[in-house]
Structures are given as C-alpha cells and as structure tokens.
User: Which sequence fits this backbone?
C-alpha cells in the first residue's frame, strides 16, 4: 500500500479533498494486514478524532477502492473487509473468528471453460480457503 502521504497526493491529483479525517484513515490502513471492516477502522481512528462519523470512514474506504488503492472484499464474514494489499493474492478465512490472512499461491491455470462461462467475460479469479486459524484450533 502507498504511504499516507502518497494517498493524499493521489486524492488531490484526482480532485478529491484531503481532510484531516481522511489522512487519519490513510494512516490507520497503512501496513494493516488484518483486513479490517469499516467499523474496525472507525474504532481505531475515533480516539484521535471522536467526532468522525462512520459515514466518513465508509466513503473514504470506497473511494480508495474505486481508485484501486485498496480492495473491498466480501469473504462471507458478515461485513465487507478492506485490504490495503493490492498485489495479486488469495485469502485464508477462519470460519470461527473471522480472521483473514493473505495467501500467495500460483493458480494461473484456473479458468472458466468457455462452454460453461454463460457469456461472461472473466478478468480475475479469487480463491478463498476456509478453515480454522491456529488460535481457534488451539481452543478446546
């Protein structure tokens, strides 16, 4: 993920406002590998900016996704997750606690056979592995 300063420059270059609230959201995402929900980002930034609305967080996250700076993920965990890692990768999801981790694996040969593509033009593949994380596996 780009640095908070680079994201601010990108927003300005796109004609978008860079507010202190947005800058704080950029900081909260930088280096975050936990695939947070908007609510988790909001929880992190609120101690510094108690008047920031959840709507501001959602809008900023969706704008970042629209610009290709983060990924918006629906992994079946009950809420959209946001991934600052925009490299091509897949995900491991814990079915008990909802933890999500990045997985780098080569699946270049996964293709939708033309006969079953139903006319879709396919340009990406996402593979999600589901199971139990080490913490949940260790619990009795």
Assistant:
């Amino acid at each position: 993920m780009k640095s908070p300063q680079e994201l601010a420059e990108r927003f300005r270059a796109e004609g978008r406002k860079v507010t202190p609230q947005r800058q704080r959201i950029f900081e909260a995402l930088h280096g975050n590998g936990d695939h947070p929900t908007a609510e988790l980002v909001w929880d992190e930034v609120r101690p510094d900016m108690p008047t920031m609305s959840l709507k501001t967080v959602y809008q900023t996250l969706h704008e970042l996704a629209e610009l290709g700076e983060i990924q918006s993920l629906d992994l079946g965990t009950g809420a959209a997750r946001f991934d600052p890692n925009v490299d091509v990768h897949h995900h491991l999801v814990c079915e008990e606690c909802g933890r999500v981790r990045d997985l780098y694996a080569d699946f270049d040969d996964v293709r939708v056979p033309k006969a079953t593509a139903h006319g879709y033009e396919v340009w990406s593949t996402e593979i999600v592995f589901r199971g139990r994380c080490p913490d949940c596996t260790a619990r009795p």
The chain has two domains: 4-73, 87-138. The mean pLDDT is 92. The two ends are 37 Å apart (CA to CA). The first strand starts at residue 71 and ends at 73.
